[in-house]
Amino acid sequence: MPQVPIIMPQLGESIAEATIVDIKVKPGDEVADDQEIIEVETNKAVMGVTTPCKGKIAQITVQLKETYPVGAVLGYVEASEADAARFAKHAPTAPQREVAEEIPARADQEVAPARQKKIAARDGDGARAGGLPVPVAVKGATFMSPRVRARMAELQLTTADLAGIMGTGAGNRVTIKDLENFLQKIENQTAQEASAIRAGVADAMRRSWTRPLSTIGSSVNLDLVLQDRQSRDPKPGPGLYAVRALALALAETPAAAAKLIGNRVVQSNSIDVGIAVEAEDGIMVPVIRAADKTSLADLTAKYKELVDLGRQRRISPDMQAGGVATVSNFGTFGMEWGTPIPLPDQTLLLGLGAGKKVPSWDEEKKEFVPRTEAQITLSFDHRSIDGGGAGRLLKRVIELLEAPKQL
Amino acid sequence: MSITYLEAIREAQAKLLRDDERVFIYGQDVGGAFGGAFKATKGLAKEFPGRVLNTPISEDAMVGTAIGAAIEGMRPIVEMQFADFSSIALNQILNNAGTHYWRTNMPVPITVRLPSGGTKGSGPFHSQSMESIYAHYPGLIVMTPATVEDAYTMLIEAVAIDDPVVYCEHKYLYYHLKADKLPTEGLPTGRARIAREGRDLTIVSYSAMMHEALAVAEQLAPDGFEIEVVDLRSVKPLDTDTVLASVARTGRLLCVGESFPWGGVTAEVIARVTAEGFHLLDAAPQRLNAKDTPIPYHPNLWSAHKPNAKEIGRKARALLRE
Amino acid sequence: MPRSGRSRDPPQLVVASVLRLSGHGEHDDASYVTEEIKREPFARDCLKVAEQTIADLKLADAETLAEWRKEAAAKVDEAIATAQKEAPPEGDKEDWCALSTRDLVDQLEND
């Protein structure tokens, strides 16, 4: 009776091997088709290995607690001719090589290529060795040779620093000569050591930019906020109103601030919103914890504290970590709109531009009336949220800003 | 006055016979008027009677006798008629000479001259390059002089060294290589030489292939490529430092040898550079050797069997494009 | 010739000392062979000696011997002609395979 091999199945996309945790049969046992006979454990779960067909267990070739790769033979089932024939076509075979069918007689020996090798791919695509996927040789613009890497490490360069270099290597990759020429050129330009803050911001923005970021925008009528603040003491700036509005909007739809990590959508337990504070040589972004539960008055006091700390350069990294969104009021620099970059550990950044007196169409009065309007933009990580979701969030923020009594 | 590679070898032997009474030459047809199959000992038997001795056609006996003489205080130079025949003496060289110091603390100062490499029509048993085999075994020094000057100074040094030396002289270089005069001193064994300075690619080579590498460097210069050529001079000991320093300058390595491709000198160089100088490499290191078949007889195939300037040039260009 | 060579005894080793009548190769003019040696009995051309012996023992007549010579010469000529007619090998078309078991050929280079 022919024997059909029991093969360690593909257990998951990134799984290469599994450990035998239970063997439920022994040689001689009658088995049905698709009967679970062995249990294996991967780093993700315990799974069952089932029989390829009906028959009798001929042998189990593996041992408990040992680990075997995907594609390994775990044992054999003695099966009928018909069943075995089915598997002759589909069972994975050892790497196939083309051999000359017969060695031709000396007299009529043709020149036959001696080096034809074909490795039968198990799943029809990609290079494999012994059933395991083998990474394809990396060539092209992203290839960095050991020497280039070593030089970059020496100078603390990142791939972002290489962006300006036209590579002359294979596939336009940057060769060591390209890198050295580039470094030589900048030697002739004035340069100074970057401050720690500059380097820190550069690193954060580089990391943030590895994501697909997008921005949407609209306009907001600031007159209501401007009016509201007159009745408060101390007077909060429009930026703080925006922090409060964003925090409340997020409290209503916390999913809008969720992060995509791997294939999990992770939500924060607290609506912590950062606000940009200018320090001597850069922007600090301290986070206000539970901003949705912090009144505008308290936000104002907190903000003043942070500005003072910012001036004293005493805003620590801890104070800037853990937020879900940040507000940047670049309107204070006179800018009307922008496409700010969310912080690397956040997915949202609300930008508030400068207010401008503009004529605005009043549908009721059927005439243009003067209004203080500002452009308000929301940049977002497009992996975590779409334009629709971002749009709805921004709309809600605008709603809240135009009804500041709720803040 | 010009002196050929072969004449340099003869002159070195004459000097050795003259200066050191312990030296004698031992090989097939080396004595009498014949002066050796390649005339490396021509005239020496006459000038130094009793010091240039003919042996029977038994490489095993030749080396065995030489080992015995060396242990007794002599400094024999054994001339193999062709490197290929030394395989008959493998046991003597590898197991007797090579292990002697390790086992008895007494070194065996023999020098075995191997006329290596081929000439047209020399076929599978008169063309081999065996440096990779001898370098593999412990206890031996393996020299592969590529120039007339090195042929001279390294042979003199070989005899002075107390350990067994396998001296691989290249037959093709015998009459093709000429120098103006003999040097009075040379680089010590174990030091490689930068035969040509460069910047874009390092070709590490030895013996006749070194000249092919130089030819390639000339060919590529008009295209703006500066090829650095390193002449190993001795493959054991192998001057890793010089090779690494060169790769540090160029970032690219091509290693060329005339022996068979599996393992050997080129594999050894690349293994060392990859292990110790990985961060110096801007592209994967490459090598070129003879083909994995016995050396053919027919001149067409014989010349295609080993690397030549054209093939080396092609490989160098590909590596420069990486 | 030892008579036992014709018997059915186990393989025999016949050792004959003869003189090589030419140099070892093209480079060797055999100038080291003295006239004295050339006059020695063992220095005779063994083919000629064999021919003479065959004639003396009347094992074959002169005509037959001439026929044999002619046939042998013809075979040699044919072999030479065949070899000369064959196209010379070309390095870049050559198989370069030293094993008869083709699927065990070691992949040494990525050509």
Task: State the gist of this model.
Chain B is an alpha/beta fold and 322 residues long.
Write the layout of secondary structure elements.
The complex is a heterotrimer of chains A (407), B (322) and C (111).
Chain A: E1 3-7, E2 17-23, E3 30-31, E4 36-41, E5 46-50, E6 55-60, E7 67-69, E8 73-78, H1 81-90, E9 128-129, E10 132-133, H2 146-155, H3 176-187, H4 196-208, E11 213-221, H5 223-230, H6 238-252, E12 259-261, E13 264-266, E14 273-275, E15 277-279, E16 282-284, E17 287-288, H7 296-311, E18 325-328, E19 348-352, E20 356-362, E21 367-381, H8 387-401
Parallel strand pairs in A: 14-18, 18-19
Antiparallel strand pairs in A: 1-8, 2-4, 2-7, 3-6, 4-5, 6-8, 9-10, 11-21, 12-13, 14-17, 15-16, 19-21, 20-21
Helix pairs in contact in A: 6-8
Chain B: E1 3-4, H1 5-19, E2 23-27, H2 44-47, E3 52-54, H3 59-71, E4 75-79, H4 90-104, E5 111-116, H5 131-136, E6 141-143, H6 148-160, E7 165-170, H7 173-176, E8 178-179, E9 193-196, E10 201-205, H8 208-220, E11 227-231, E12 234-236, H9 240-250, E13 253-256, H10 265-276, E14 286-288, H11 299-305, H12 309-320
Parallel strand pairs in B: 2-3, 2-4, 4-5, 5-7, 6-7, 10-11, 10-13, 13-14
Antiparallel strand pairs in B: 1-8, 6-12, 9-11
Chain C: H1 35-39, H2 46-56, H3 62-85
Question: How would you characterize this protein structure?
Answer:
- The complex is a heterotrimer of chains A (407), B (322) and C (111).
- In chain A, 24% of the residues lie in helices and 25% in strands.
- With 407 residues, chain A is of the alpha+beta class.
- Chain A folds into three domains: 3-90, Beta Barrel (OB fold (Dihydrolipoamide Acetyltransferase, E2P)); 146-191, no CATH class; 212-406, Chloramphenicol Acetyltransferase (2-Layer Sandwich).
- The N and C termini of chain A lie far apart (81 Å).
- Chain B is α/β, with parallel strands linked by helices and 322 residues long.
- In chain B, helix 10 (265-276) links the parallel strand 13 and strand 14.
- In chain B, helix 8 packs across helix 12 (309-320).
- Chain B is globular, with a radius of gyration of 19 Å.
- Chain C contains three helices and no strands.
- The longest helix of chain C has 24 residues, at 62-85.
- The N and C termini of chain C lie far apart (58 Å).
- The chains are: A alpha+beta (407), B alpha/beta (322), C mainly alpha (111).
- Chains in contact: A-B, A-C, B-C.
- Chain B binds chain C through residues 32-34, 37, 261-262, 291-294, 296, 298, 300-301, 303-305, and chain C through 27, 31-32, 88-92, 94, 96-98, 105-106, 108-109.
